[in-house]
């Protein structure tokens, strides 16, 4: 292709050449008497970035690069596979054609306010930051933004951007790596369709923070955000009015700081879908999850975090685990118990495990015999966490035995047996551990009532031994281990 010179340029393009030579900034916004945006051809920018433009004399582009605002990029902008050390700043520029940066290797790129059908920048490498604040991209059936496999040395900034796709995802960034934060916040809005999700961040590695505060993502028939196996160096935040229509998926993600889900809402777009999918997520710091954030079912199986979860009470957490998870799983309860145990709240730990056992009885796969034993363990020793209950049952059994013998004495079935010896007879009948001389106290079994009392004593004796055994098992933790 022929190398362009100043003679090939229009007035706005000549001004741009002078600005680039002098390291200046060209502002074409709102030029008086010009109802349309001044035109700068994308090919001129490409030749400048490749150092193929015929600069006047021996002059060369200033290291501050190409800086212009308010231009219409005629013919689009194609920097695919271009390598350049010149910074590129195109502020509030419009393009009727897609902006192509596929495979490019650039210093820094600022496309704040860009209006274009698409940004195709997969496998792109940016030494410093890529900025698309307040950009408006999409409207067609394909990705509005494609950053799959891109490498950004600094910040990726989509704050306030508006992305849309009539079919499929609006943003595809699978395998993206950034050296610093990713900001998809402050009024960011994305709409798309389909099972793949609207904003796709699977396998993304974020050097520091992932920030979606104040973002809105809508999908009428699938997930909103898909960030499976995401890795962040610090926090991942969803708050300040964050709103998602469609499942928010972070399956297998590793969060290097806190995961904050508060002052926002994630709701499923279809009946039966999850609102929040945090299965197998590992959080180095704290989990701050408001009970109002997932407006629907959530999956927290395999979720681990440091410290006690915040922004929800223990009661709210237990209600979420019991009523809003798709099926019973023990791990979320054990993780919650571990967090409270680490904080020294042993009473809360018992409460959590009791709730776990109740959920297991309600939704777990126990079988008939397992369910029967579970009910017995719950009623008698609180699943091993309340052995005092078995002791109370034991005391009640002994009291019932004493009452039964006293009634027998009152009915004349014991002969001349003093009340004290009657009590001894009752205790000895149900628990041979208590030895009492009861030679004068013998139940008259020649009559029907006496036989019934003797049989009742055998039943009470069996119950006494059962409750004593359960108390010992609960006290030593055997019931907890078996259940």
Automatic annotation (TrEMBL):
Membrane-spanning ranges: 391-414, 458-479
Keywords assigned by UniProt?
A: Membrane, Transmembrane, Transmembrane helix
Domain of life where this protein originates? Bacteria
User: What's this protein's name?
Assistant: Oxidoreductase
Organism this protein belongs to: Amycolatopsis pigmentata
């Amino acid at each position: 292709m022929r190398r362009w010179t100043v003679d090939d340029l229009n007035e706005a393009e000549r001004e741009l050449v002078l600005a680039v030579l002098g390291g200046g900034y060209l502002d074409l916004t709102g030029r008086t008497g010009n109802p349309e945006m001044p035109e700068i051809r994308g090919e001129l920018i490409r030749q400048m970035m490749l150092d193929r433009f015929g600069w006047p004399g021996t002059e060369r582009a200033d290291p501050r690069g190409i800086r212009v605002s308010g231009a219409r990029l005629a013919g689009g902008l194609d920097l695919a596979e271009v390598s350049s050390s010149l910074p590129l700043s195109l502020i509030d520029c419009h393009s009727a054609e897609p902006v192509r940066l596929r495979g490019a290797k650039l210093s820094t790129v600022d496309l704040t306010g860009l209006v274009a059908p698409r940004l195709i920048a997969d496998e792109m490498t940016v030494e410093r930051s890529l900025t698309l604040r307040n950009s408006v991209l999409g409207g067609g059936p394909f990705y509005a933004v494609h950053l799959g496999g891109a490498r950004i040395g600094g910040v990726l900034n989509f704050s306030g951007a508006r992305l849309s796709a009539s079919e499929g995802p609006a943003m595809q960034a699978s395998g993206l790596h950034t050296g610093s934060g990713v900001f998809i916040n402050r009024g960011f809005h994305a709409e798309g369709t389909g099972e793949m999700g609207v904003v796709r961040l699977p396998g993304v590695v974020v050097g520091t923070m992932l920030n979606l505060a104040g973002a809105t993502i809508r999908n009428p028939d699938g997930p909103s955000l898909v960030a499976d196996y995401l890795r962040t160096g610090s926090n991942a935040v969803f708050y300040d009015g964050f709103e998602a229509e469609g499942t928010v998926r972070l399956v297998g993600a590793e969060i290097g700081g806190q995961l904050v889900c508060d002052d926002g809402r994630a709701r499923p777009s279809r009946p039966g879908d999850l609102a929040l999918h945090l299965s197998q997520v590992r959080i180095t710091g704290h989990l701050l999850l408001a009970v109002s954030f997932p407006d629907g079912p959530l999956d927290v199986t395999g979720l681990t975090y440091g410290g006690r979860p915040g922004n929800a009470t223990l009661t709210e957490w237990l209600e979420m685990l019991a009523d809003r998870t798709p099926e019973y799983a023990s791990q979320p309860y054990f993780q919650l118990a571990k967090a409270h145990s680490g904080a020294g709240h042993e009473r809360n730990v018992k409460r959590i495990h009791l709730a776990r056992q109740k959920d297991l009885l309600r939704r777990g796969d126990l079988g008939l015999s397992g369910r029967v034993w579970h009910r017995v363990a719950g009623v008698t020793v609180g699943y091993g966490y309340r052995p005092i209950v078995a002791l109370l049952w034991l005391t009640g059994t002994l009291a019932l035995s004493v009452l039964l013998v006293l009634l027998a004495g009152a009915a004349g079935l014991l002969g001349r047996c003093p009340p004290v010896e009657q009590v001894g007879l009752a205790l000895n009948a149900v628990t041979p551990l208590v030895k009492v001389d009861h030679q004068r106290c013998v139940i008259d079994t020649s009559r029907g009532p006496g036989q019934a009392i003797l049989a009742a004593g055998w039943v009470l004796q069996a119950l006494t031994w059962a409750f004593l055994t359960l108390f010992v098992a609960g006290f030593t933790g055997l019931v907890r281990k078996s259940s």
